[in-house]
Write a sequence for this structure.
């Protein structure tokens, strides 16, 4: 639903006569609110309402200078809106488009296999050191904490600890999608050098960011017909995407091409299962995942939801537990159900939003329940933390089943 909300915000810019008038006036040059009021003959509160919608859509930008705010048309926002119309009215789905990108490039690839670049975004939550050591480009997903926009990704001043402390003290945070120009700048860099690349981005079912990347990729492909950049919708975010990034690094080191690696990731991503619980239901409510009544009621009686990543990359409630310990036990149950009882597990990933003690407790529970070689802990950064709040715990592992097979077996549709 988050993706649909993002798309709806874009089209709201064009769905009102007054807003169309405002866009008409802004085509000439940037204007202040006072100048727009004089042109359109509407009140200040009415104008503020329309400008809020236009700015949130990305079609209009607002520039503050002293006591004035100047509004202007955003060229990148306009290109994104036009590209979105094309994307939504094209018969192929995003997933089908992925496959076509991979298969069509395969028909004309006759050169020798060479190394390739890997691109991801800050929602993958991999440690900065790992990303730098493996020469992975990380595109920042912007977030706004207490009114301050942070768009520098891993290189911003606020630490994970400071971020979660701010939320515990009543602060608010929200995320926004990556600007299409950011994707274009990244893709052009590789296209101009004739380098292959693949990128792994958070679920298209959770954000419009993936759609932005496809629009940018189409533009770059038009300019550079021999461009070989392969998109992978991780149909998730955070730790599952981290596992895909690590697999891409492994396949690159084995000498596979970007195209071959993308095909492997497209298949493997359906077998990486993820389940999580949160400590405070109100953060899910603020992110549009839960009604206010359910959030308040659940918090009062100590209900801890068990959620999972669906086959399409969206979130779904899989169970409820009364209290934290019971919630952790349910996560282990989901793990044991998704594993072959006779096989050893290489790595189980546990990610947390500033709740290391509970993450370590869960790690011990996992080791007692299954034969696992390694349990890796990952800290959730501000991008995902904005939506789950402090105290979230995620359990991720590779299953012998696909998500669809797991759903059909343990959570069949009623």
């Amino acid at each position: 639903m988050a993706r649909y909300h993002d798309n709806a915000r874009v089209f709201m810019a064009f769905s009102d006569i007054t807003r169309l008038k405002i866009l008409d006036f802004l085509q000439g040059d940037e204007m202040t609110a006072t100048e727009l009021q004089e042109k359109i003959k509407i009140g200040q509160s009415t104008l503020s309402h329309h400008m809020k919608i236009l700015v949130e859509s990305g079609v209009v930008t607002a520039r503050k200078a002293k006591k004035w705010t100047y509004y202007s048309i955003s060229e990148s926002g306009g290109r994104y809106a036009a590209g979105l119309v094309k994307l939504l009215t094209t018969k192929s789905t995003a997933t089908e488009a992925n496959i076509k990108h991979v298969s069509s490039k395969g028909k004309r690839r006759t050169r020798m296999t060479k190394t390739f670049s890997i691109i991801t975004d800050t929602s993958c939550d991999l440690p900065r050191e790992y990303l730098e050591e493996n020469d992975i480009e990380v595109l920042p997903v912007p977030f706004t904490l207490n009114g301050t926009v942070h768009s520098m990704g891993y290189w911003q001043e606020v630490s994970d600890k400071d971020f979660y402390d701010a939320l515990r003290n009543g602060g608010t945070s929200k995320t926004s999608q990556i600007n299409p120009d950011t994707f274009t700048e990244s893709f052009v860099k590789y296209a101009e050098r004739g380098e292959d690349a693949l990128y792994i981005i958070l679920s298209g079912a959770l954000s419009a960011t993936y759609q932005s990347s496809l629009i940018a990729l189409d533009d770059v492909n038009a300019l550079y017909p021999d461009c070989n950049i392969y998109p992978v919708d991780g149909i998730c975010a955070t730790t599952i995407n981290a596992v895909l990034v690590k697999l891409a690094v492994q396949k690159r080191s084995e000498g596979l091409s970007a195209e071959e690696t993308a095909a492997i990731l497209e298949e493997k991503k359906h077998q990486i299962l993820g389940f999580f619980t949160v400590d405070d239901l109100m953060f899910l409510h603020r992110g549009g995942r839960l009604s206010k009544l359910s959030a308040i009621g659940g918090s009062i009686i100590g209900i801890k939801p068990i959620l999972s990543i669906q086959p399409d990359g969206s979130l779904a409630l899989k169970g409820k537990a009364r209290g934290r310990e019971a919630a952790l036990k349910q996560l282990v149950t989901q793990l044991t159900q998704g594993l072959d009882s006779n096989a050893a597990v290489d790595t189980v990933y546990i990610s947390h939003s500033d709740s290391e003690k509970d993450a370590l407790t869960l790690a011990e529970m996992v080791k007692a329940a299954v034969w696992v070689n390694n349990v890796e802990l990952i800290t959730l950064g501000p991008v995902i933390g904005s939506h789950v709040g402090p105290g979230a715990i995620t359990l991720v592992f590779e299953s012998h089943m696909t998500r669809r097979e797991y759903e059909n077996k343990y959570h069949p549709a009623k």
The two ends are 21 Å apart (CA to CA). Residues 238-253 form the longest helix (16 residues).
